[in-house]
Amino acid sequence: MSDSNYLELNQSSLISEKSIIMKKLTSAEEQIMQILWELKEGFVKDLIEKMPEPKPAYNTVSTITRILEKKEFVSHKSYGKSHQYYPLISKEEYTQSYYKSFMKDYFGNSFQRMVSFFAKQENLSISEIDQLMKLVKEDIESKEE
After folding, report:
1. Is residue 35 a contact partner of residue 50, using CB atoms and an 8 Å limit?
2. Taking a C-beta distance cutoff of 8 angstroms, is the pair 43, 82 a contact?
3. At what angle do helices 91-107 and 27-39 cross, to 10 degrees?
4. What's 42's domain CATH number?
5. Which among 27, 30, 58 is positioned nearest to 44, based on CA atoms?
6. Is 9 contained in some domain?
7. Burial of 76 (0-12, 13-18, 19+ CB in 10 A)
8. Is the peptide bond before 54 cis (omega within 30 degrees of 0)?
9. Final residue in a domain of this structure, among 87, 107, 127
10. pLDDT, tens only, 106-127
11. Cα(143)–Cα(19) distance, integer angstroms
């Protein structure tokens, strides 16, 4: 195999692993991503408009957005000196990566431990647990079809 073929294989495997090894976002970064996922694309001023009061400074939002770009969560189109940002990672991809990390870090990759924890924390009734199990079973069966 030539070096160029090896490089292409390595790049494609890195891309496919991107969602698995996705970096965690700070709460400020996640807030901006939530807005970008909703808007699909936007300038910094658009992001600020969607933020709750008190609005952060323009430079703060711009800096966080550039950090997201370095982390490869967003990219931009240039219009002169302005940049229109758009997400490179879908909300679903991030949610899946976050969920996997959460399960591993807090529940040892055990779905049973996670459900047990939330059942205790939320004081779920037996009928609510039954409903939850029914939904999980339906999801599993639909994936098998």
Report:
1. yes
2. yes
3. 150
4. 1.10.10.10
5. 58
6. no
7. middle
8. yes
9. 87
10. 888 887 888 788 888 888 888 8
11. 20
With CA atoms as reference, report the closest residue to 79 among 46, 32, 49, 38: 46
CA neighbor of 96 nearest in space, from 28, 18, 27? 18
Same domain, 81 and 109: no
Q: What is the pTM of this model?
A: 0.69
Phi, psi torsion values for 72, nearest 5 degrees: 65, 35
Q: How many residues does the chain have?
A: 145
Task: Kindly indicate the confidence band of residue 102, based on its pLDDT and cuts at 50, 70 and 90.
Answer: confident
Does residue 20 lie within any of the structural domains? no
Domain assignment of residue 126, given as a range: 91-144
Of 87, 105, 124, the position where a domain reaches its end is: 87
Q: Count the domains in the chain.
A: 2
